[in-house]
Amino acid sequence: MVEGTLRASVLASASASAFDDRRRSEASTLLSSVAARAAIALHGTPVLLLEPDRVRRQYERLRRALPFVGFHYAVKALAHDAVLAALDESGCGFDVATGEELGMLTRRGVAADRIIHTHPIKKPTEIAEALSAGVRTFVVDNDVEIDKFRDAPPDTRLLVRLAYRSPHAKSDLSSKFGVGPFEAARLVAHAVAAGVRVAGFSYHVGSQLDDPARFAAAAADTLELMGILERRLKVRFDTLDIGGGFPASYDTESAEIEDVARLLRPVLAPHAGRLRIIAEPGRVLVADAMSLVTSVVGIAERGDGRWYYVDDGLYGSYSNVLTEDVHPLVFAERDLHAGARDTADHRWATLGGPTCDSSDVIARDVLLPDLRVGDLLVSPTMGAYTTVTATRFNGRPLTPVAALDPVAATTDAAVQYAVQDAADVRRVPIV
Ligand SMILES: Cc1ncc(COP(=O)(O)O)c(C=O)c1O
């Protein structure tokens, strides 16, 4: 028994270090690319390096894993034009929560029938704007919201948001919105009486949910509820929206898209002909597609050891640490080039952010080499809920996002691309 436990923990630590090594090697390839060097030369640090090609590849993985699902990217995860362009060109739909997000898409010329609006609570003016832009699918979870659609065009389709509490998710998205099955039945009856069409149901199992079985259970429960309500209320539903929630791998390996899909497919597939099955993934499409490069701005020896202060922190791009309690890895650039990792001169250090607030601590107990002011650090998996939730606390500007062109083979092309991107960033504030 003890031997078995020991073996399991040896295997676990071997796979953790394989995961670390993979992330390190990806960061090394990125940081040594011509496009990344050009972006760092142009912007200095901090800078977020966005790889739109990785967004495209994640979308293709989702499509392969769940071919009968229509995906709508949750724009809130990373509202950047290069991401929207990559997904638009790939044929992905979009999920918006505000008029601002909708505006980014309509300015691009995205057709309204590829856009759904899933915020359960909306200003009447926002509904009117979305309707006049041609959006027809909306989410509701209460009577007042349903009544806002009494005079909407007849092809308007409402989805009733269900709640599935997920204490294991980093962000339980059913504590603020969504209803249980009895209230759902009452809302459908209310909508029928109000002359508003309920096309089906939506839910969100919780963001960064590393539990494939929970995705399958929520889908099965919703399908069962839909069957019961169709029989009891004599209505017909045609849409099931399975939300988002697919996890990203920050400091440890999480379930992959394919792991979640393996359990979801047998539940959903039998209904795929009859129902339009859609999803609203955010994080999984963009988390791995952006990395943050910072540099050391200060070093201090304190009672609890060495502190490195860097030029981005919890009130900036590392807002995900604050708001979601996720822990992105942090590598020193020097370690990326070391080949076989020699940690003889390394020590455990605390990484502080740049603001005056004592809570602005990015990570404790990070094993780092002896760093100097100006040395670069890189964090992978910084695409989701980072720059979009960053603040300007202490008067610090938002960290620029440089979209890297994978085909920019020469320095000139890469610099030109980065310069264009800098202009884009100024034109489209990412807040
Ligand atoms: C309504 C809705 N849909 C989709 C998403 C995206 O979720 P995720 O990033 O976990 O895939 C969110 C996240 O907050 C959400 O609130």
Care to give the gist of this entry?
With 431 residues, this protein is of the alpha/beta class. Helices cover 39% and strands 19% of the residues. Belongs to the Orn/Lys/Arg decarboxylase class-II family.
Detailed description of the structure:
Helix 2 packs across helix 14 and helix 9 (212-233) packs parallel to helix 10. This protein has helices at 2-31, 34-43, 52-65, 81-90, 99-108, 124-133, 143-147, 181-194, 212-233, 257-268, 283-286, 319-324, 333-336, 411-427, and strands spanning 47-50, 69-74, 93-96, 115-117, 137-140, 157-162, 198-203, 239-241, 276-279, 290-302, 305-310, 331-332, 347-352, 361-368, 376-379, 401-403. The protein has two domains: 31-49 and 288-427, Lyase, Ornithine Decarboxylase, Chain A, domain 1; 52-281, TIM Barrel, CATH 3.20.20. The protein is of the alpha/beta class. Bound molecules: pyridoxal-5'-phosphate. The site of pyridoxal-5'-phosphate has 16 residues, from helix 11. Pyridoxal-5'-phosphate is lined by residues 74, 77, 95, 118, 173, 204, 207, 243-246, 280-284.
**Strand runs, count:** 16
Briefly, what CATH class of the largest domain?
Alpha Beta
Average pLDDT confidence is 90
The helix-strand sequence is HHEHEHEHEHEHEHEHEHEHEEHEHEEEEH
Distance between the termini: 53 Å
Poorly predicted runs are 423-431
